[in-house]
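General statements about sequence and structure are easier to judge against a single worked case. In the encoding step, the backbone of a single protein was reduced to a row of integers, each denoting a local shape. The record that follows shows the chain in one-letter code together with its fold in token form.
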Amino acid sequence: MKLIKTEQELKSLIAADEWMMGILKTVEMLRLPDSWVCAGFIRSKVWDYLHEKEYRTPLDDIDVIYFDKVNLSKNYEKRYEQKLTKYLPNEPWSVKNQARMHVVNNSEPYQSSIDGVAHFPEIPTAIGVRLADGMLEIAAPHGIKHLVSGIVAPTPYFQKDSQMHEVYMDRVRNKQWKSSWPKLQIIY
């Protein structure tokens, strides 16, 4: 298994991927407040790298998040998806305003996009990347250790009670990540 040890090495891995950089440049053009590309976009790239895959594992969607307390309607999210589709029509865009997503997790309102990311179910999924004035930035509220080590574990929020932990367990079962990345260590 190849190793990535630092955020700088993670940034270098992303920067060397022309497709990923194209996605990030496209999202940057929208100038959404506190916007990030997150979850499987990064996770799958790292896991493919760790498994020395020759080809990219296809993504179900490209998760773009932002934070806007004023415009909470899903219609805004759909408009942003349409704009992204105009720029890159063959990509599976999914845009979500983290200012309203706390309802999904039945939690207190999030204070930022990264607060929303911290409430994602799995630690290696709880990561974002963006271009800000052409510079790559990584946001990993739970660090990158699990991601770069191929370890799947629930975030603290999904460890707080049995109901939330069951949501995590359902995702692990439904995603079937080990069929694509057999070296993963899944913590139940």
In short: The first helix runs from residue 7 to 15. The chain has one domain: 7-186. Residues 7-186 form one domain.
